[in-house]
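User: Please fill in residues for this 184-position structure.
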């Protein structure tokens, strides 16, 4: 397998021999997962955008904005998303719309499929979240993910966090001298 990797690296210009990662071009030699096909489901738009953003940053830095947008569109298929893609492609080809960056395009995709309901969906998810059998670290990470975009912040966010903790930890927190003021 090492021989195959070395042959691949040599075919790409010889960079990265010896297993050392190069500075700014490191992403071009790393494996990065591609996004799953996006069909327009509102609950999947955030994950799709995050996967696209990561891939574009790691693998497509040198590409034009048009190429990056078309790559993202290649993963927009099926359902209402497919119809939207056709409309966007027609607008791009007719010169009716031009994106300054892939981020601008991803923002328009989120607006189209995230809907105004995204915040209320995230808030409902946050209110249902409980620690259960997770470790506290796992719960904190899951809570932070759910809190993003939920509209919760400050004291209200801390109260939701405490509500979701296991009862034993809640009791210890109540007995503590310093009350919880942040989930950081």
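Assistant: Residues filled in for all 184 positions:
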């Amino acid at each position: 397998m090492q021989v195959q990797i070395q042959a691949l690296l040599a075919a790409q210009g010889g960079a990265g021999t010896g297993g050392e990662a190069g500075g700014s071009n490191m992403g071009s030699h790393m494996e990065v997962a591609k996004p799953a096909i996006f069909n327009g489901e509102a609950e999947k738009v955030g994950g799709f955008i995050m996967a696209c953003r990561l891939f574009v940053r790691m693998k497509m830095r040198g590409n034009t904005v048009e190429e990056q947008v078309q790559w993202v569109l290649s993963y927009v298929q099926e359902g209402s998303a497919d119809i939207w893609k056709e409309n966007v492609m027609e607008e791009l080809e007719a010169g009716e719309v031009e994106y300054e960056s892939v981020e601008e395009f991803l923002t328009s995709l989120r607006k189209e499929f995230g809907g105004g309901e995204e915040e209320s969906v995230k808030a409902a998810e946050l209110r249902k979240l409980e620690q259960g059998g997770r470790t506290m670290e796992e719960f904190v990470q899951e809570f932070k993910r759910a809190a993003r975009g939920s509209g919760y912040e400050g004291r209200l966010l801390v109260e939701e966090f405490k509500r979701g903790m296991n009862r034993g930890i809640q009791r210890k927190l109540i007995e503590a001298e310093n009350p919880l003021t942040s989930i950081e």
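For context: Residues 14-26 have pLDDT under 50 and may be disordered.
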